[in-house]
Amino acid sequence: MHHVTSPQRVPASTYRLQLTADFTLDRAREVLPYLRELGVDWLYLSPMLGAEEGSTHGYDVVDPTSVDDARGGETGLRELAEAVHSAGGGILADIVPNHVGVATPKDNAWWWDLLKHGRASKYATAFDIDWEAGDSRIWLPVLGDGTDEDPEAELARLRVVDGELHYYDNVYPLAPGTEEAARSAAGADAGEEQLARAAHDLQNYRLMPWREADENLNYRRFFAVNSLAGVRVEIPRVFAETHREILSWIRDGLVDGLRVDHPDGLADPGGYFENLRQATGGVYLLGEKILEHGERLPAAWSVDGTTGYDALGEIERVLTDPAGAPVLDEVAGRLGGWGRTEDQSGETSAAAEVVWAEMIHGTKRAVADGMLRSEVDRLARLVPGLLPEDPEGEQLQDALAELLACFPVYRSYLPTGRHHLDGAASDAVRRRPDLTEAVRALLPLLADPDHPIGERFQQTSGMVMAKGVEDTAFYRYTRLASLNEVGGDPSSFAQTLERFHALQGDRQARMPLTMTTLSTHDTKRSEDVRARIDVLSEIPEEWAATLERLMGLAPLGDGPFEKLLWETIVGAWPVDGTALETARLNDYALKAAREAATRTTWTEPDEEFEAALADLAVQATAPGGELRATLQTIADRVAVPGMVNQVSMKLIQLTLPGIPDVYQGTEIPFPTLVDPDNRRPVDFAERAALLARLDGGWVPEFPAAVEAAGGAEAESGTTGHDGGLLAEYTAGLKLLVTSRALRARRQHPEWYSRYQELDVIGEAADHVIAFTRGGSITVATRWPLGLDDEGGWGEAAVVLPRQVLVDLLTGRRFGGAHTDGTTRLAELFEHHPVALLVPEDGNTLS
Fold it and tell me: Of 194, 201, 153, 139, whose CA–CA distance to 174 is shortest?
């Protein structure tokens, strides 16, 4: 357990709400009765502090001293907190200590004062600025493109207006006395342009072309976002001023726990968490930490756990069929030009793992050399003269970029994680023997947490990992699109039941209060999309043939990207026979293509390629065409097994060790794509009405098969179902699973005290995931198409405790003292592909 002292209160579950100007704290209070009926314990609120005007996410805080008026203000928070606590719940608040929004300088009092007074500003130490590199000025990348002769030609657009410097709609302060000095220097006959340029030359900032940010920026950003400036919360005064409002929420009893955004950007995450723990008196505390394969949260951190991406990846892979890997790898290899490699036994195999390792090294190196070059240069400036034979520092910069590209995790927390640094150094020297001397000179300094370069390298490695892997390689590498998810390793295709159960037992022992999740505002695809894509691992040959037809009908000339795109479309396709909205499909395709940056980019868009994407979106969604028909056929094929995966995934996550979070709207199928699509408005009235139906006695029933025209189902070995009825059943069942599991966790915490897998006997044992939590028992179907191909459950059975158990999904009773505990799965799954069993004795749930 990570928390030094146990938190005062711990949620049984959380429900994430995205606060905006359209969904305010008042709206959250309005939906609270529904969420309590759903079984939710605590609300989990997106950032609430004053944000940039029009912000849809709240991570661009401009005023850390008050609750954002656009999101409901202090009154809204107080009224919501009173309602939540009166109902017996709590509030988990998302906070952003790493950076603030500076897109509109006048809205951020600290940034405005900094620009006005420069190094003399009382906020100068709050921001992470390399003053020497900028000749004691802050360099702001806001100017449009100039000309070859004058890259800063856009400075001609500057104007002095009412004591401020204006560039179009961008407004900047003038340092005291500089307007008068500029008028004097420019002369009485100077025009507006000359006056503005003269004034600009006297400021504590320099406006530069936006394309120069990658190389010349001299303040730390959030990743590569120029409008989010890093702050130094490791300084006690800065911590106190940025957290005064947040701590008042805790002191006043408005908020019960905190979720810390992006701790990897901080100079000392462990120290920050300890300061926060002491300042709050020990509230429930989570860090948004992405753990790579096999990585563990530092044991010394004063936190209760992560935000759950590790659990997401484990659930995903236990539901992915490893038998599909060879065919899917062959397709991905053929489209991407992968080679083949020999393993240690001399056997050849698809080089999926090797390709991934080489790809992310390349994308991370490109990020270090490109959009984050200014950060690499800043690192090099911390050790001037380290290599006497390299007076310009070029070899040093090369070595630092290579080390960042080779770093295997987001960052170290020295001295914890020193082995990652050593491994990166070994890999860098292996790849680049010419950098051996530079790497050896850097290594002892990078390993010293008290040396400036040791501290800053740790902050920088996470930026390179995020931009190179999550935001680039995840759009290029396509074994199976559902594996390309935040916190996941796409080269790890599937997970055995044995490994899955071992990981859950480990979580119960080490981090029982950590969060688990399936969807967030950062996931590339929601749980419901991934669950349908996972089905393709069961029918790899069929999918390969369909993919070939789809690519032939709408060729883009980028095979790996096309595979990723079509798998995502299949995952997001509606079950009821309607089409995905054309605009949503086009928006996703455009963002994914620009992130992949193989055919078009954000800064250099390829109009012809992007026009082809738009045409594909139209063809795929327009009725009557061959492309739409082909897509509909495969979508129908995965509809039923996709539903099974959706509810299995949900039940498993809600009942695993840890504190389950439900992302807004996902209590029913909510197939969303990468942001901003995953922040779409939620129809809470629809969900409340469906829950009332369930509580009123409506029983979701799997629809009977219908005869399909044309024999398409017969050809593919499937039986058709009415799309509308299947959609109704899926929504009803997923809401039933969610509400019954959440209510059980809130009302009977004693049922969730341990973790142990249950014995399953019979030939179909691989097709079920069964475990007990010390009272609550989860039994869920796995690989449904393979199960059907093998003839169903047959005599397979799960061995249950010898007591009367009630399935909360159906009300049926199983087992008893006079049985041997063996229960046939065919009987258990007679109505639904999942079961949630609890003891009849002591059960207070209806």
Answer: 201
